[in-house]
């Protein structure tokens, strides 16, 4: 067991775990943040994305040592305004993919506040949704972009 | 359906129907609030639980709003009458489209609060992993359980029959331990499977139980100028939910408590009781939501796995979660189908007789219906129960392979035959719409082939044969109008196609117009959909289900085919089982016909028509008829070679 220090949603943590433990397990089991979801374990579906120093990454195959000293943001730490846009568009069906999608959307909106529908689709292309809520999700991200403008 | 009125002015609703991501709990809340004249905030629909009931069977077949909705309305009316009120149900507003209550579960799910079975946790929880053999019938010939003791966090490693499992203190430890066990395990398969393409090609040669499903009119050889024949096929398709199946279990003495995202908790209870040789009253199954469910996936199987492991640690709760590979390879698949259509035409290419035959394994392999449990692990552990056969439910219950094979068109004579095959094939069971997906794809493609033989517009052909069904005509016209069918321009490589069906012949009427672009790949640009579900209790929910069904069907139609070889299913990762991505998803417009007729379900109505519309649009774009799904670039090129 090794102590790894990093921050999650602006709170500092020192976690005792084997350094190759996936970040996802630490978030869910040690820190009790259940919003980040397991989908495949190989970074192929996007369900487990978090922001690491602002970059959207899969947490299921990201070892704990890789986030030492870094700032992690999970869906629980996202601005309410983005989540509200998804509620307003009723943008999911089962919702299991939504936290990863929201993380990718947050990264997109920060880098590209004037995004087009094609930008949104391309930013979310690595995120799988099986229920077919894609078009509602795209509308929700565009709504959030619109509402964020002054 | 049971109601409980509380002193604080709230009402609790106990239903047997379960939330699968389709929004049923919101729709039921809306119905109860309406009938009782209460604010929806005061209505709480509780998760299903075998301890409290009621037993409302399986949440499937697009039946929930129709059946449970009606039961709930009746219960509310009774409650109102008991309080001295009227016995009439309260009509919805004259606009016939009640305002949609937003989904009650979405704010918590979107905010990342614990919502799914994967998030449920208890003090002392242990993490279990299991290793199912590659095929349901594989024999374990080598396992090295001595390799795991001493691994960090290991509580136990177990071998029972053909199945292996581990229990650990932490989730990542359990993943490592099962990986170690897996690396040393070897299985043998007695009868080799062939691969998925060969198996589909040989499906019609397998031993089959054949019967005439239904027929109408008398086939006559007089006036037959020609007979059109075509063979269509649909491969094995994976459920491919975004979350792997998961369950929790705890044994207390001889009683078992299970938390599951099963579609049928009473059926699961019955089969768990059979498997562990205890009375059903000793088993409690509580429903906890999982990710989107599109049919009989691994939810019931993993509930057995959790109970099997929890038995080693009485009093301690155990969670088992399947891997992504398990989810894609150990869950039942949606069965493959071959459909053959024949039509006798007169000298003006009018249909005189229509014959529809389908070949597939049974479409239902669900728990709760056989002498032995229909739970994967129960066949692989001692005492090794026999695997019950897959069946097709009777047509009166919606049918299985036969679903939607009976023509909805006015034809002088027709016959539908079903051939239920048996063979060394992957385990298959119910997937969204069952046989309707393949039957509607085939029949609606065939209608276009007949219309093309006549040189008739495909919408016009359907219009002529639907005069007896005004609600069918209405959705057809609405979809065609909104898609700009009559004004569509002829552009190189772009095509329009239409597909129509009334789901099960008794459910929702749905017409889809697809606009596709056929280049190196087939791309679906837009789906324009009209649907009549009777009174739409929650219109936005109907739109979401119709749109979601059409997008999932687009994925099946363009991309999906489960792969297997002699030893098992090989499409075990997203890389090897690709599904439709954001950049490939078409624009979808859904038009819901306003109606105050009795409500029917929306979950499965669009999948068959969407597939047919896409295949017909491909034909319109290139003049090529591809009759085998999925409509991949290779298949299109092969069709060019034959043209």
Keyphrases for this structure?
heterodimer, A: about 150 residues, alpha+beta, Ubiquitin-like (UB roll), DNA polymerase, domain 1, 2 domains, five-stranded mixed β-sheet, 5 helices, globular, B: about 650 residues, Aldehyde Oxidoreductase, domain 4, 3 domains, seven-stranded mixed β-sheet, 23 strands
Give an overview of the whole structure.
The complex is a heterodimer of chains A (150) and B (643). A five-stranded mixed beta sheet of chain A has the order 2-1-5-3-4, covered by helices on one side. In chain A, helix 2 (80-88) crosses helix 5 (134-148). Chain A has helices at residues 23-30, 80-88, 98-111, 117-123, 134-148; strands at residues 2-8, 11-17, 49-52, 55-58, 71-73. In chain A, a hairpin with a 2-residue loop joins strand 3 and strand 4 (55-58). Chain A is globular, with a radius of gyration of 15 Å. The model of chain A has no long low-confidence stretch (mean pLDDT 97). Helices cover 35% and strands 17% of the residues of chain A. Chain A is α+β, with helices and mostly antiparallel strands and 150 residues long. With 643 residues, chain B is α+β, with helices and mostly antiparallel strands. Chain B has a seven-stranded mixed beta sheet, with helices on both faces. In chain B, strands 9-17-16-15-10 form a five-stranded mixed beta sheet, with helices on one face. Chain B folds into three domains: 2-100, Aldehyde Oxidoreductase, domain 4, CATH 3.30.365.10; 117-189 and 239-329, Aldehyde Oxidoreductase, domain 4, CATH 3.30.365; 337-363 and 399-642, 2-Layer Sandwich (Aldehyde Oxidoreductase, domain 4). The model of chain B has no long low-confidence stretch (mean pLDDT 95). Chain B has helices at 24-36, 64-82, 106-110, 171-184, 196-201, 265-275, 299-310, 324-329, 376-380, 436-454, 458-464, 470-483, 539-558, 607-622, 633-642, and strands at 2-5, 11-14, 43-46, 126-131, 139-142, 154-160, 163-168, 186-188, 208-216, 226-234, 246-252, 255-260, 283-287, 318-321, 337-345, 351-360, 414-421, 494-502, 509-518, 522-532, 564-565, 568-569, 587-592. Chain B is globular and about 75 Å long. Chain B has 15 helices and 23 strands. The longest helix of chain B has 20 residues, at 539-558. The chains are: A alpha+beta (150), B alpha+beta (643). Chains A and B meet through helix 1, helix 2, helix 3, helix 4 and helix 5 of A and helix 3, helix 4 and helix 13 of B.
